[in-house]
Specification:
By secondary structure, the chain is of the alpha+beta class. It is 55% helix and 9% strand. The chain has helices at 2-41, 48-74, 100-120, 127-150, 155-159, 167-185, 211-230, 236-265, 270-285, 293-317, 326-344, 364-394, 401-406, 408-413, 444-447, 472-482, 529-540; strands spanning 78-80, 84-86, 192-194, 201-203, 460-468, 488-494, 503-505, 508-510, 515-524, 549-555.
Length: 574
């Protein structure tokens, strides 16, 4: 009876993990939404539809080509010299022989590798070029190197190389392709300027249009990463350990980046901290099942420093334009994650038999990890270099300058804007029976008795006040106490001689920033101008930049349309 229960328990456990395997795959699929939100938020609104379309097609195109060849190439049972996979081609006639769970699971990982590249090449890539390179990634580039790592006959796997969930096989590959693609493509228009005096090229900040979307994407990705790292776990203990390390590393990375940017720049950088969460997740992906909590902490801490240094180096020194930080998040931290196995792996982790340098394992595992990182990186660099060069020569890689300036939404997809509120609309007039009745006009003297204009020739003055938005309430209260209730208020953008406080975005100074202001226009006749100016100054003064300015000008006349009154009388509401 005990043997029967034991067998039944094992069967139930196997079934549970099979179900979790597919749930994990679904979580990884949901990460496509996270990538779409991060890339959209970190780029400009005029390209939002283009970014969303790319992330959608990454998975859809990837599914087609991975089904036709990619999966067979990756999981082939025939390997020449254990290096290059030669597929047992699976065609539609024998599609039933596929391991359905394995196909879906590997497909969602493949799509992740492809979608990384679109972010680094965002805002200036032709959509047709994107379709080509996205398909080739899922068709050949990813399947071959992933087969080295995860195919039972893969030469790196049999050598002892460990990449549990894809720091190198997925993220490093996407990061390296991002670097090569962005370098060949060139920077966005206006990203780098050359100082005519020194001849030095300097980077200009191009902030993304919505950190809110970027943050949403990061949270979605972090949530999906529990499936990304944990879906292949073979025991409850190992799954718990993976969840632990997958939580610790990104959290520590984000805290370290917050402190680092706070010390370095004087303020904690929001976008860098978002990138840091992803960097910590990427770095822990390879060693997540082979390290303990302490190892995950150190891996995350290094990622927190590495992400800031790498983003600024690639931008300011190498002058490779990466709008979302994909090269640093996935490429640099993918390499770090692969090497971290050789440093922090411990056999005290559940189901782990690998021991790294800092846990008494010597240099053996670190050497294997370095070898694997080198060959995967070399394969990716060579194939992507050829791929992007061929696309550039045959199809063209970059969108036309005028299309880039107006935004790829309209030029590539015929979409005026991905945001309905920003779209220019022409109001239509309904002349049908449902149209509201318009009151008949009456003579002004019948509607409102009109007296002779009082105070003819009285001076009329327009006072315009431009100040910070947060000062409006105090200003309004002061004006009401003075007896002024008629205001015209506008939201405006601009800057004075100081061009606002010096700010930075992702470590790059924002040279000229249009600051949000309010403009308050008041036309007075009865209230003395000097008294109004004194009241405004008392309400706005702090002694700091941004208190605002007051502009005074003469008004020739004022006419009240409803009554026909002019001058002083037109300004009165009695």
């Amino acid at each position: 009876m005990g043997e029967f229960l034991s067998t039944a328990s094992k069967a139930a456990t196997a079934t549970t993990f099979a179900v979790w395997f597919l749930i994990g795959a679904a979580l990884v699929f949901f990460m496509q939404c996270g990538f779409a939100m991060v890339e959209t938020g970190f780029t400009r609104a005029k390209n939002a539809g283009n970014i969303i379309m790319k992330n959608l097609m990454d998975f859809c195109i990837g599914t087609v080509v991975f089904m036709l060849l990619g999966f067979s190439l990756m999981m082939s049972q025939n390997y020449i010299f254990g290096v290059i996979g030669v597929p047992n081609l699976q065609i539609f006639s024998d599609f039933s022989q596929f391991n359905f769970s394995s196909f879906v699971f590997n497909l969602v990982f493949c799509a992740t590798a492809a979608t990384i590249v679109s972010g680094a090449m965002a805002e200036r890539t032709k959509f047709s070029a994107y379709v080509i390179y996205s398909g080739i990634i899922s068709l050949v580039i990813y399947p071959v190197e992933a087969g080295w790592v995860w195919n039972p006959q893969g030469w790196l796997l049999n050598l002892g190389y460990v990449d549990f969930a894809g720091s190198t096989a997925i993220h490093m590959v996407g990061g390296i392709m991002s670097f090569i693609g962005a370098a060949i493509l060139g920077p966005r228009i206006g990203k780098y300027v050359v100082d005519v005096k020194t001849g030095r090229k300097t980077s200009r900040a191009i902030p993304g249009h919505s950190l809110t979307l970027g943050a949403l994407g990061v949270f979605i990705l972090w949530f999906g990463w529990y499936g990304f790292n944990g879906a292949a776990a073979t025991s409850v203990e190992q799954l718990g350990s993976v969840f632990l390390t997958t939580t610790i590393a990104p959290a520590v990375a984000t805290v370290v980046t917050m402190a680092f940017t706070w010390i370095k720049d004087g303020k904690p950088d929001v976008s860098m901290c978002l990138n840091a969460s992803l960097a910590g997740l990427v770095a822990i992906t390879a060693p997540c099942a082979n390290v303990d909590a302490l190892g995950a902490t150190v891996i995350g801490a290094v990622s927190g420093i590495l992400i800031v240094v790498a983003i600024e180096f690639i931008d300011k020194v190498l002058h490779v334009d990466d709008p979302v930080g994909a090269i640093s998040v996935h490429g640099i931290n993918g390499i770090w994650g692969g090497l971290a196995v050789g440093l922090f792996a411990t056999d005290s982790a559940p189901n782990s038999s690998v021991v790294g340098l800092f846990y008494g394992g010597g240099l053996h595992q670190l050497g294997i990890q370095a070898l694997g990182v080198f060959f995967i990186a070399a394969w990716t660099a060579v194939t992507s270099l050829v791929l992007f060069r061929v696309i550039k020569s045959v199809n063209g890689l970059r969108a036309a300058p005028e299309h880039e300036i107006e935004g790829l939404d309209i030029s590539e997809h015929g979409l005026p804007s991905a945001y309905a509120d920003f779209m220019i609309t022409i109001p239509t007039i309904d002349f049908g029976s449902a149209a509201p009745a318009v009151p008949a006009a009456v003579a002004p003297e019948v509607a409102v008795p009109v007296e002779n204009n009082a105070y003819p020739g009285a001076a009329i003055t327009n006072v315009s006040i431009v100040t910070n938005q947060n000062k409006f309430s105090k200003l309004q209260d002061a004006l009401e106490k003075l007896g002024i209730t008629g205001l015209t208020i506008s939201n405006v953008y601009g800057y004075g001689m100081q061009k606002g406080h010096q700010q930075s975005y992702r470590g790059v100074p924002i040279e000229t920033k249009l600051l949000p202001k309010i403009k308050v226009d008041i036309v007075i006749c009865k209230i003395p101008t000097d008294l109004l100016v004194k009241t405004v100054k008392e309400a706005l003064y702090t002694g700091n930049i941004g208190d605002g300015k007051i502009f005074i000008s003469d008004v020739k006349n004022v006419i009240k349309v409803r009554t026909g009154e002019e001058g002083f009388s037109a300004l009165q509401d009695e």
